[in-house]
Amino acid sequence: MTDAAELRTRTRELLAAHPPATTEPIDFLKARFDAGLAWVHYPVGLGGLAAPRSLQPVVDAELAAAGAPDNDPRRIGIGLGMAAPTVLKYGTEEQKRRFLRPLWVGEEVWCQLFSEPGAGSDLAALGTRAVRDGDTWVVDGQKVWTSSAHLARWAILIARTDPGLPKHQGISYFICDMTDPGVEVRPLRQITGEAEFNEVFLTGVRIPDAHRLGEVGAGWKVAQTTLMNERVSIGGMRIPREGGMIGPVARTWRERPELRTHDLHQRLLTLWVEAEVARLTGERLRQQLVAGQPGPEGSGMKLAFARLNQEISGLEVELLGPDGLLYSDWTMRRPELVDFTGRDAGYRYLRSKGNSIEGGTSEVLLNIVAERVLGLPAEPRNDKDVAWKDLAR
């Protein structure tokens, strides 16, 4: 059984063999993956040592103290937080060995082709079709709100393979090559002025059956693994005290006493406590993950994350007064990552509006918490047993 002492030894051996100061970052990351120190709870040979997940901070602390490079998780968050755990659980050995290493070191960016113009909140109503043609699938349809599609090499994709079954059935899950013919990515400009999101058109895209994850028709089950991990990765990120959105507000409060009022003080105190409670709850959720798969509790964390970000950013704009109305740059750009804390208050306020939409709308997450966490009766659904092709659209 791998313990903390052994992990420290292995990490120090990695640092001795590949000094961060003289090793190219990508070469160091590859060596770290091969040493099983990328995600220690993964199997041997796939970036891990089959060690307890709770020991990952031991490795991370040693590497941070030595100034080792990281893999820029904000840039490859979809790959790390959503694609990797899904490939690990449902992928073949060949798929795991092909995709996990370049995903983790950041050589290949991933995106998520789930939502559609007519199937956002009701994702199971998706209409993108995949028709089998021998050993390949021919895919036609449209996806929307696709983060990082303009950067991605690969995409996790769900498509309907049997329209004669009810909507939650007859869906299959694929890995799509974003460089293949028939894949067209168009920018979606947001309220921030940027286009980190995209719409993706799929026209006659041919996907090998070898790039299917899970059984044919079992795509909804596979997608649940992706979605639960997505909500944990969005709402349960590890941050220090006063990390995230509450940090800039607290800093402004301390540095600019002339902006303070009694009302703002009371609101700041309330949100500071709520942010700390959310941070500690996220830590507890990560500890629960040590013993198993993510559950619906991640939906509650993501729900809290969206509400807090929007309330905190609103408070920050009010605290800054006239300066809070300024916005530094409306330039149309296609950024590689979302940087909440490195930008100005206007950006945080505008960008946080998307938090209650992306990764599952807050309305959908409330239903999940009600039904799967609190055990309340499910809402009546008259379309569950009706063939998808017979549903009104």
Strands, helices and their partners?
Blueprint: H1 4-17, H2 25-34, H3 56-65, H4 77-90, H5 93-105, E1 110-113, E2 129-133, E3 136-143, E4 154-160, E5 171-177, E6 183-188, E7 197-208, E8 212-213, H6 219-235, H7 246-255, H8 262-289, H9 297-320, H10 345-351, H11 362-373
Parallel strand pairs: 1-4
Antiparallel strand pairs: 2-3, 3-7, 4-5, 5-8, 6-7
Count of alpha/pi helices: 11
Gross geometry: globular
Low-confidence stretches: none
Query: SSE string, helix = H, strand = E?
Result: HHHHHEEEEEEEEHHHHHH
Largest sheet: 4 strands, mixed
Mean pLDDT: 91
Could you say which structural class the secondary elements and strand pairing correspond to? Answer: alpha+beta
Spatial arrangement of strands, main beta sheet? 1-4-5-8
Find the count of extended strands (DSSP E, 2+ residues): 8
First-last Cα distance: 55 Å
* Gyration radius over CA: 22 Å
The helical percent reads 40-55%
Q: Quote the beta fraction.
A: 5-15%
Structure notes:
Helices cover 40% and strands 13% of the residues. By secondary structure, the chain is α+β, with helices and mostly antiparallel strands. The chain has a four-stranded mixed beta sheet with strand order 1-4-5-8. A four-stranded antiparallel beta sheet has the order 2-3-7-6, with no helix packed on it. The longest helix is centred in the C-terminal third of the chain and has 28 residues, at 262-289. The termini are far apart. The mean pLDDT is 91.
In short:
The chain has 393 residues and is of the alpha+beta class. Helices cover 40% and strands 13% of the residues.
